[in-house]
Amino acid sequence: MRMILSAAALACLAVAAPALAQTRTVSDATGDFLAGYTGPKLGDLDVTSFSVSYDAGAKLFTLGSTFAGDITPGTPGFYVYGVNTGAGAIRPFGGIGQGNVIFDQAIVVQKNGTGTIGGTALNKDWIAIAGNILTVKVPLSLLPSTGFAPQRYGFNLWPRSAGGNAGISDFAPENATLSASAAVPEPATWGMLMVGAGLAGGTLRYRRRRGQGALALG
């Protein structure tokens, strides 16, 4: 019974404790242009990896992506990052098999290193292009929550060569969004944490009392 209690306590602690890491990354296959894509199949429109990081101290998101070819200004295309801050009000891609790509904000980045969120221009210092790598930093102040904690914001990257669904070359991740970390514990989960801590403490006290009793008998 003591072993069962200890296992339960450890399980509660493992489930409930927030992850220290605030970065998540997905890989995306090379050459996986969408079947309905009608634009030029350029390497810099083919995502090979996408990452989302959130720095809670600086209140800053960092979006990192790599492509199958170097990003070349002057060639067709730009990059859209859909962000679900909690409302998830926009779901436009069900007809092309991407119904789980939902968002309520959009970040648009051009190949020349400029970008916007809605009508707000991003500081050029927040966008860095190095070969096939694109890094975009976005302050939380430009992405106010509509229900989610920042660590739970869902992001998806889709390069475009033109408007309309036929102008979208790729999605990363496919038919999903990527968050910086696992879900932040809700109040019920924090309750599990407290119960787990209590079970762990109770088990340790029981072992100490039993050990002291054995010494006294000996």
Features:
218 residues, alpha+beta, five-stranded antiparallel sheet, 2 helices, disordered N terminus
The count of helical stretches stands at 2
Largest sheet: 5 strands, antiparallel
Number of extended strands: 10
Strand order of the largest sheet: 1-2-3-9-8
**Unreliable residue stretches:** 1-21, 183-197
| CATH architecture heading of the largest domain | Sandwich
Rough shape? globular
Strand-residue fraction? 25-35%
Please, what is the average pLDDT? 83
Distance between the termini: 24 Å
- What would you report as the Rg, rounded to the nearest angstrom? 23 Å
**The CATH topology of the largest domain, please?**
Immunoglobulin-like
Order of helices and strands: HEEEEEEEEEEH
The CATH class of the largest domain is identified as Mainly Beta
Number of separate structural domains: 2
Structural class of the secondary elements?
Answer: alpha+beta
Binned, the helix content reads 10-25%
Protein model, in words:
This protein is of the alpha+beta class and 218 residues long. The protein folds into 2 domains: 1-17 and 186-218; 21-167, Immunoglobulin-like (Sandwich). The chain has helices at residues 2-16, 187-217; strands at residues 23-27, 47-55, 60-67, 78-84, 105-110, 115-117, 120-121, 127-130, 133-139, 154-160. The strands form 2 sheets. The chain has a 5-stranded antiparallel sheet, with no helix packed on it. A 5-stranded antiparallel sheet has the order 7-6-5-4-10, with no helix packed on it. α1 (2-16) runs antiparallel to α2. The radius of gyration is 23 Å and the shape is globular. The two termini are 24 Å apart. Mean pLDDT is 83; it is low at 1-21 and 183-197.
